[in-house]
Write a structure and sequence with these properties.
mainly alpha; rod-shaped
């Protein structure tokens, strides 16, 4: 029975680790989206301050250009993290299914003595 308990703890640990990974990725995506939104507001404020909204204009704000570049990089990172999140969510779902399957399986240790008992016609071999 001890081996089964150890295996069950391992399955729970694996599921918990995958759940933590999903949560971490979701948190990172939220933080990156918040930062990208802040950069959008800063770019808008800079464009309003200078009066130049065209990034191709020769006197467009360098601050607005660099903030737009950072925002675009964050959005690319968000897209990459969403792909990783989907994979992590799939791994978590698989681990959850494995744990559920493992916990509903009948313990092997209990079924073996019964078989032995049935084979001997009720006589104990011990």
């Amino acid at each position: 029975m001890k081996a089964r308990e150890t295996a069950l703890k391992l399955k729970r640990f694996e599921m918990d680790e995958r759940a933590r990974k999903v949560g971490d990725l979701e948190q990172m995506i939220r933080e990156f989206e918040t930062i990208a939104g802040d950069l959008d507001r800063q770019i808008q404020a800079e464009e309003d301050r200078t009066g130049i909204k065209d990034p191709k204009h020769f006197s467009y704000s360098t601050f607005a250009k660099s903030a737009a570049l950072r925002r675009d990089n964050l959005r690319a990172s968000i897209a990459g993290l969403r792909g990783k999140l989907e994979a992590a969510q799939s791994d978590f779902d698989t681990a959850k299914q494995q744990l559920a399957r493992f916990t509903t399986d009948q313990p092997r240790e209990l079924s073996r003595p019964r078989r032995r008992h049935e084979r001997t016609g009720g006589l104990s071999l011990r």
